[in-house]
User: Fold these one by one.
Assistant:
Number 1:
Amino acid sequence: MDRIVVGIWQNAPGWVWPLFVVLVVIGILSMKTRDSSTIPYFFYPLFGLSAVGSIGGLVHVPTNWVVFGFSYLIGIPLAGWPDSREAGPANGSSR
């Protein structure tokens, strides 16, 4: 593990570190609690369907589809949908 971290530290291009700092600062500033509309939450599960093309490109094994379907259906309630306004990482609370 140490070799991986040292390799990243020594071999990363110079532009990576300022970008990393900017993204960390944006993330810290975005941690405040805020209200948002619930309408986008109803479309988030559709993003999971974007993986269908990737799954279809794999070697045809029915297990791929079973695992994908099971993970997709289990992931929705674990993500807090449709109750996302009251709990979830986007609103500052965790389960």
Number 2:
Amino acid sequence: MVLNTPRQLRMIEQAMKDRAPGMYQELKESGMLQRVLEDHNEAMVEAFLEEADALASVVMNKQYSSHTEYEQALTLAGNTAWERAMATWLEFEDTEEQKLAYINGSPEIQRRLERAYQKWMDGVDPEHREEFQEFWDCEQKQTELNWILEELSRDDC
């Protein structure tokens, strides 16, 4: 069992919160967040250890002109292994359902959605507003989720 350092757990939690807020909210509400963070950390550390071991083997099989050069190569191998583990294990993505649940459950996002919707409708020809209103209200608005999320990420909404 790999120890879960508070720093690593906070790093994983923040990555999840930033990249997959719906997943984060769902896990937090279900009481499973801490367990998932610990499991994720364990997997990340195991991946790091495997990568560090493989890179260290390469370093140890080479000839170096000094002990300092050898130590630097080992340090570089360890840093590279850690960076690779973090690049892989700090990636999170919400499912479409999680994205919608997060959007529908956040008053701030609802306000921003209303502003984005109003800006969108302001640009629609008055003759077509009813048609666009129906589209907006339609169950298929999920297909526009990526557009909405992109609009929400802009500061001018």
Number 3:
Amino acid sequence: MPLEFNGTEHLDKSKDVSLTASKVNDNVRLFGTASINGYKENYNFPEPTGPTYNSITGSAGVITEAGHSASVEARHIPNFGNQVTAATNISVLKADTHKVDVNAFTTKHFPSGPIPNFFYTWSWR
């Protein structure tokens, strides 16, 4: 199972780091990712106030050789709350010159404020 580590440093000295693991088994790729976006170390000038990161994310999914996929993602955003997203893609037609896919996702938000206690975002194409 290969592991991949990625890191980026921005002009404001904040960092994005992620760790991804994937495994291919019988032409099916399984993957999982954990990441921290906008991480700010305490010795930066000016010293950060509030949260020391923008978001923490974890995701897992599967991709088949036929082009079908499904994934789920959970994210925590300081001073906002949490989000959970589920997405899927189904390859309906794949020819030499044409390709038709059906995509759908839904996201449930759990704000940390008093009202509303949750709301949905969804789409399909």
Number 4:
Amino acid sequence: MTATEERGVRPATGRPVRGSSPVPAAVVTVGTMALATVPTPLYPAYARTFGIDETGTTVLFAVFALGAVAGLSIVRTRRCAHWAVRDRIVTAALLGAAAAVVLAVVPGLVAFALGRLLSGLGVGIAAASAVTFVTDRARAGGRNVRFWDAVTPGLAMTGLSLGPAAAGLVVGTGALPRWGLYVAIATVLMTSAALLAHRASRPVAPQATNDGPQATNDGPQATNIEQQPAAGPDVRPRTARWPDRLGACTAFAVTGCFGALTPHLLSGGHHQPSATAVGVVAALPFLAGAIGATVLAGRGRWAFPLVVTGLVLVAVATRAFPGTVLGTVGFAVGAAIAGAGAGILFSRSLGSALRNAPPEHRAVAASDTFTSAYVGLAVPVVALGTLLGVVQPSVVIVAFTAVLAVVGTVLTLRPGSHLRDAAVRQRTSAL
């Protein structure tokens, strides 16, 4: 294989080989993540339909988190090393589409729980597989490599922000019925899966040169992109380091905290907030996180100062102005600031995990990082779902902020901290 073909370029024409576009895999990542958070502003309606309380909705979220961790664990197994990465992403898309269809057309609490479980499985498989696939395909095709290196760490949070925003703005305003949004997401995921499967089934014909026939990027030799090489029986996969896991866990714990607090704080504890308001505000920390992961990833030192500043602002707003417009504005601004810091922290943690893993173990490192992230996302939701009835939100936020201040000090000041790496190294070597 020539050097140009290793980059996914045909020697005769200089054009990228077929199937080198990372767009379908990126869409699968965003789509599965969006499906995961669509129910956020709709949970009150589901609770009334199913006759459950806040504890019940917390359990339903736990079902999703269980599915996500299970999907991430599947990717981490040795057997999965023989499963082509493209096929993993197609499977994740089909699981997400099936979950969306179940949520759209099958009534009942059990069906909703099943849909959330399938959604979690799709998220887990996509998160661990697509993050490396997207950047590898961009490099193989020679198309906008810098762009994809920059935006890939923010794909997950972009999708997580689109879910509640779409549910609030589209379903909450009555522009589209709930089932219509789920069907739209299923259509996008199935289309992306079809594009990925189609490109895998139509390899480019080998190019004849003076050196003889050449292999193609979609052929069996393209293991660096299409398939993660299997580790030998005596080779133990190199997992993500504890600082990277802790950073990812902390970043998603921040967003999970806001996801749990938003409905309660917008209601002021006395009335039911609109799905539109909950959706828009719940999307803010994820959207700011996507921007932080993409635009501010080189500012690692900013991560925890932004998180702590945002949480302090939220604590003041909820304590001094509960149930008022000023309190809501303060909460939204604080959520955006803290979300930006969380995005920086997650981008740096994921980049560090992938940078320190050999190519054949990058999927394992991604799986470890995202597993820690979803554990961090689930813990605040489950804990706050049971605590908010007996503890003031401002007390919870202050305690959470104190814990994050300690974690931030440890991660930032430790020798070789990934929050102090040079921005150039982060961008060019991490993914």
